[in-house]
Structure formats: structure tokens, C-alpha cells
Amino acid sequence: MSKEKKLVEEITSMETDFARWYTDIVLKAELVDYTSVKGCLVIRPAGYAIWENMKNEIDRRFKETGIQNCYLPMFIPESLLQKEADHVEGFAPEVAWVTHGGLEELDERLCVRPTSETLFCDYYSKVVKSYRDLPQLLNQWCSVVRWEKTTRPFLRSREFLWQEGHTVHASAKEAHDRTVQMLEVYADFFEKDLAIPVIRGIKTDKEKFAGAEATYTIEALMHDGKALQSGTSHYFGDGFAKAFDVTFTDKDNQIKPVFETSFGMTTRIIGAVIMVHGDNSGLKLPPHIAPIQVNIIPVAAHKEGVLDAANALKNRLVAAGVRVKLDDSEKSPGFKFAESEMRGIPLRIEIGPKDIENNQCVFVRRDNGEKIFVSLENVESEAKECLENIQTNMYETALAHREAHTYEARTMEEFKDIADNKPGFIKAMWCGDRACEDKIKEEAGATSRCMPEAQEQLSDVCVCCGKKATKMVYWGKAY
Amino acid sequence: MSKEKKLVEEITSMETDFARWYTDIVLKAELVDYTSVKGCLVIRPAGYAIWENMKNEIDRRFKETGIQNCYLPMFIPESLLQKEADHVEGFAPEVAWVTHGGLEELDERLCVRPTSETLFCDYYSKVVKSYRDLPQLLNQWCSVVRWEKTTRPFLRSREFLWQEGHTVHASAKEAHDRTVQMLEVYADFFEKDLAIPVIRGIKTDKEKFAGAEATYTIEALMHDGKALQSGTSHYFGDGFAKAFDVTFTDKDNQIKPVFETSFGMTTRIIGAVIMVHGDNSGLKLPPHIAPIQVNIIPVAAHKEGVLDAANALKNRLVAAGVRVKLDDSEKSPGFKFAESEMRGIPLRIEIGPKDIENNQCVFVRRDNGEKIFVSLENVESEAKECLENIQTNMYETALAHREAHTYEARTMEEFKDIADNKPGFIKAMWCGDRACEDKIKEEAGATSRCMPEAQEQLSDVCVCCGKKATKMVYWGKAY
């Protein structure tokens, strides 16, 4: 029992200190580790396998919409970065600069890409000539660098992994539709595969991406009531096209600029999974993206027939397409249970001598702890159904949590009271004025998360200044 | 006809100028394009899709041997790079240096990884404590940077994509076995999936990896008779372990250094596929890694029923798991044929009014141009069988070419004559002396490619100095 205790003991409870709980989990579940490179982490196999599954699900959805993958250089010459004024203003202060190649100083500094709008525009300016070349629907999976001062595993680090999609179109409408379509792809992935409900909406001008005309976002609520921006899709109009001279000859023989979009999702969504689903026993992975969906733990494994039965069970589940591990190590069952919980494996199956006698095994669900005796007869279909139930229940639990932590404010007094005492989303009307947005941040510590698709008329006036309201906004403290 | 002519016309024939033929193909088949970043390329969708298929095949094989993926930082602090003397000497002259982060100068320069032995050792020194933690079998897919002076698409560029596997073991034997095992994984992938025969062997000390005790390699022969080092697997002994203090407590309670390996394969293997299989009509992709395996081209597509039949055919092949494209664009059939050849699609299927009448279609093989009338009855199995035949034939053709261009030399005169007049591999005996290796390079322009597994005793004496020979070596001019 001492080892089991140790495994659990070392996690700070989330009620005591949510930030420490989070860090304990990412380290104890062996998702990441610190390195000798300041602000950069190792993503360990257990963490990377989650990312691989996320990638596969996102990539499949992308390809279904006609997107193709490619790879552009990791370096951007300083002159290229500077071509679009808003963009360079947003990114130049936080990029890493390469100044020497081999033993020589470079003629021109290169930054390590913080994002690749500039390179994609440079590329499109070469390959797009006619309306027949449009649309171009490209994406790349890569790492990017932003020289952050403070970092946290997955949520903010100097280097992170992501995908960045960049498309160009013949018309503003088509580009705008694509922007919205990709936000919906993200939302669908979050809700179906990560079991995390999201608010779909548009960023205010203050919060939008450097150089974009409009930034669409999905926002998720973490267990501690803080928001996490989880995926963004940007509409650029023809601003970048004009700066980079990306033009095409249209059907009417006129030369016109293209309309552009970009959209990205990063390894920070692993942080979202941890902070939405995890508990004081560790990680809880949604079955759709769990590298191991079922952990078979033999009980009294030394007794005759137990390991054989466990192995037979494993082979049956593998053949049925379930991702299974059989833990036949020498650790005690209790330790294995605690470890399985720490690592967030959705379903644990115990099998011992008595179970074999009764032609059964025991399912233990990670999401709610439920114990179910299951006949070995149809264990494949039972396991698959149980995993889908876990997936659904995790989504519903997260949705209920978000609904219980979403508040409405009609006055600044109400707003500040909620912000101070009730962690969560705050819905409130806004006049559209930057001054009010700044004031809300200053006085209540909350930023605008988004102007949701699903607008509600909570009142006619801005929660801050009392003038005519134009939008309902989700506000919150955010990662 | 003018358009078809144009597409083909623009390729230099390989007999005229092999280097230009190669460059023409990578550009015309839209595999890569140049960028504003000197020495770095865009890998375009048609090129990246090939890499994705290669990745999947390699990654699957890796995982079957127990390897897991992870991700380490792209930056290496200068002090970390310098810990292993041979390694830093090999790489320091060709790395890119980051000196500024945001607006500030860094305390210590960071290089962009040229390879990650140092980072993996740093990581393993933290996580490996006991023999129970061994072996560690990790791999990462990423990009690396080497500041090359001259570059060529895929073959040599400042940034390239690769995988790098890094393992640590409790014993020298286990590490050595792993080194050989991974070489065999590479060889199997090359021969089965890329249809390229390889020579498996060991590098001489002169040609081995910086810091390695032994470098194993697979060497392939290109169509022009030059060799391409196509994948390497390194055995490090405990050199790095001692430099980085990667130690473990063994079963006997003694603290010991681990034994290490690394192995890598890069996007240059796309160059190998082009230069082994391509011809003057363009690329020839082996079916196993071709993003599109079958290109259906309707003939007289405007006639009633043709497009419907082509679509029905496509759906049947897709359902059978074949990667199919239906080219229903407005280009002429002749242009489509030429384009399909340029892009290296293994099998073209033509279907027109007469074929529909006869319940048939026409297969045209890219590998040998053969035309086959195939009943629509069992077109799925016929297509799959045909693709496998193409795969096999491509391998056999490449093998025959290599055998026809492998020579033996017993004297320096013979050696120089072959090197001057007969492009290909030269098998010759060697005394093991670096001086002879240098002299052969100077006088015949050939480098040692490898000391093959399959040794032959061509003579008793070194081809260069006449002293006692210790090894038969494959020599050649190389990319």
C-alpha cells in the first residue's frame, strides 16, 4: 500500500491549488517534463500519443473538406515578416531571431516562425495566377516559437506544436464561409472527440489576431471556472493579399486580389482535456482520443489460468479494434489501479480466479467509478458500448459544469461580484466600445472571450457605460 | 496537342543532363517550389502526400518494434551541444544560431537542432534511474537545420524533415542488436514499399556519424549510377552516456552507463524514389506510397453515360481501398495522360463509350506502358493485382539496373577506369587504412559507401596499396 499512497499523495488537490494540481498531473501522468532549454518542454510518449490521436481526428476532418497538407520553411526573413503592418506589430516583439548560419553572420536576420501567414502569402503569390488556381486549401503540422516570458506546460510555452491552415479564395464570401466552416470543424472535434462543449463566437477587435479582419473562436470552460481559447479561425479579407501581391486573373479578365483565411489549433488543447475532465486521482481521457482505452489488470495473477484468461481477453478486444493494454507487471493490483487512474485510462477491466469461474470480468469506469460485472460472452460489444457511454457522460458532465458556472450580469456591481466570487463565464451586454472593454478588464479582471453566435438580449444597455448595447459578450478570466 | 507537348517539352531528358532532369521533375510534378528563404523549400501537397505515406509505413514498423513517439525542443543550448567532443566538432560549423528572443539578447546562444542526441541524452539522464527504466525506445518526427552552402531539392537543404530515433539500453549487446534491427527496418521499408534495393553495410571510420562508434547504412544506386546514402543507424557505445551522465542502477546494485543508439531517415528518400524510378515522361511512384494509385480518365467524356460509368468505377475502387482520382476536368485526354505520367501515378484507367459497350476498361501501366483490357466484372481485384505487379516489377527493374551497374576492381587502374567510364558501384578490397581511402577519393573521385554485410573475397590485397585486405568495400560517387 505504501507505493499506492505515494502515487496519489504527491498530487495537490485541485481545491487546494488548481495550478499545482495541474502541474502535478502533467508530470505524474508523464505527459511532459522540463528540459535544459528554458521555456521549452519534452512531450513524453504518454503526452505525444494523445496529440497523435488528436491530430488524426483533426486531419481526417480537414481532408474531408478538401484541405491538403504541405510544409513551409521554419524561418521567415525579417523583410517578409514586415510586409503587413499590423501583423509585424503583433508578432515582432515575441519572436526568436537567427543571426548566424554556421560560422558566418547572416546578411538578413531570420525569425523562427511564430505563425506562417507571411510565408503562405509569399508562396501563393507565386503559384496563384488564374481563377482556375483557386481556392488553395493548405495546412501544415509543425512547431512554432513565441518568446513568452512566463510559461506553463501545454498552455503557454516558447515552442509548441500546432496545425496552421491557410486558404485563399476568389471571393470574400467564399473565404468568409471557409472561416466559419473551419470553426465548426474545431467545435465538432471538441464536442465529439474531446467531450468538451464550446462557445462559438467572434473576438472583439481588441482580442482578434494581428492582421485579421475577424477572428472566430471556440471558448471552453475549465474546471476552475477559467476560460481557455481553444481554436481560432481568421478572416483576413484582402489585406494580406494586397501587402504580398497575391492576385489572380478572374473570369472577366480583371486582375484581383485573393481573399484569405487561416486557422490553428495547438497542443494547448491537451491542457484543456486535463483541466475540463481531470480530478484528484489524475487524468481522465475521453475514449475517442485515449491512447489506451482499456487497461486489463489481472487479480491474483499468480494463480493458474489468470494470466492466460487476461491475455485471451486482451486479444479479443484488440481484434475488435479497441486500444488495450494488459498490465502484467509485478506491481500490486492496488498500485496498478491508482496508476491507471492517474493516466486517465477510460476503462479498467479486472479479471481474477472467481471471475474466470463465473465466466465474467469486472468493468470499472474512470469517469464515474462505476463497477459493472460483465459476461465474457459478449465482452467486445460491452466494452465498446461502455466506452461510448463514458464519452457521452464526460461531455454531459462538462456541459452541466459549464452551465452551472455561466452567469448573467446586468450592472457593473453584479459583474464585479460574480467575477470576484463565482468563477465561470459571465454573459453581459456591451456597447461595442473599446473603452468599456478596457474598463471591465481593469475593474473586474475579466476579458471578453467572444461575441457568441447564439446572441441573447439580456438587456438594452451596456453593462459598463449604460449606453445602447450592440452585442452580448461572454466574459471571463482566461488562461 | 500544344499543351501536351508543352508539359513534356519542358523536361530536360535524363541522358542530356541528369541534374536538370531531376530539377525539372520536382518542379513540374509540383513536389516542391523555391521560397524567399535561401536554401529552404516548400514541400507542396503532391510532395508532402508522398512523405505522409512514407511516414505511415515507417512509423507502423517502428511501433511494431516497441518504439514510441515523443517531441523534444528544437533548440539546443550551446553548452549542451558542446558536451560530447566529436559530436560538436562534426556539427557546430553547420548550425543556425538563435541569439535574440523577442527584443532581448540571450544569455546563451541556442542552435536550431541539426540532430538531437544531446537533447535525448539530457532527457534520459533525468528519467532513467534503474534497470527497470530500460530500454527507452523513443523517436520523433520533426524538422532539423544544417546550414549547407549548396542545396538541391530533397537531397540537400538547410531545413529538412526526418525522423530521429534514440534508444538507450542496459547492455552493449542489446544496443548493438537494436542498431542492426533498425537498419533492417529501413531496408525492409526501402525494398518492400519504395521498390528500391539497397546494400546494407557499415560505414568506414572516415564516413561515420560524429560521435558514433559504428554507423550502419543502407545505400541505393540512382539511375545515373551515383549512390545515395538512404538511412543510417548508429551505435554509440557508452560515449554519450558518460558525457551526459546517463546512468542506471543495475540488478547488481552497481551504477552503470547506458548504451545508446540513434537512427534517422529524411525527406531525401523522396529524391531516391525520383532518381531510381523516374523517366523522361516524369515521376514513377511505387504503388505502396503513391498518394494516388489509380487515375481514371474518361474518354469522350461528353458522351452520354461516360462520366457516370467513370464515377461508378471510381466508387467501386475507393470502396475496395484503392486510392483513386477521377480526372473529370476539361483538359484533353492526351493532356491528362501526359500529366498523369508526369505525376507518376502507377495506373491509369481509361473508359470511353466503346469500353462501356463491351463492359470493360483499359489499364495503362506507368511502369512499362503496357495496355490491358480489363472486364468491369472484377475490376477491383484486377486493379489491386496490377498495382502489386507494378510494385514488384519496379523493384526488379531497379535491382537489374543496380546489378548491371555494379563493377569489381582489383587494381587502381581498373578502379579509375571504371570510375571514369562506368557510373555505378565499385566493389573493391581495402586494407582498412584511411590513407588508401583518401587516395581513392583523390584519384578516382569515389568515396567508400559501406562495408557490406555480405562480404566477398575478391582478392587478398587492398586495391590501392597492395597490402593485406581486411574488407570488401562498396565505393562510388555519391549525392
UniProtKB/TrEMBL annotation, chains A, B:
Alphabetical list of SMART domains matching this protein: ProRS-C_1
E.C. designation(s): 6.1.1.15
Entry coiled-coil feature ranges: none
Keyword Ion transport: no
GO molecular function, one term: proline-tRNA ligase activity
The entry's keywords: Aminoacyl-tRNA synthetase, ATP-binding, Cytoplasm, Ligase, Nucleotide-binding, Protein biosynthesis
GO biological process: one example: prolyl-tRNA aminoacylation
Compartment(s) where it occurs, according to its Swiss-Prot or TrEMBL record: Cytoplasm
Domain remarks in the Swiss-Prot or TrEMBL record: Consists of three domains: the N-terminal catalytic domain, the anticodon-binding domain and the C-terminal extension.
Biological function: Catalyzes the attachment of proline to tRNA(Pro) in a two-step reaction: proline is first activated by ATP to form Pro-AMP and then transferred to the acceptor end of tRNA(Pro).
Subunit structure as annotated in this protein's UniProt entry: Homodimer.
Entry protein name: Proline--tRNA ligase
Encoding gene per record: proS
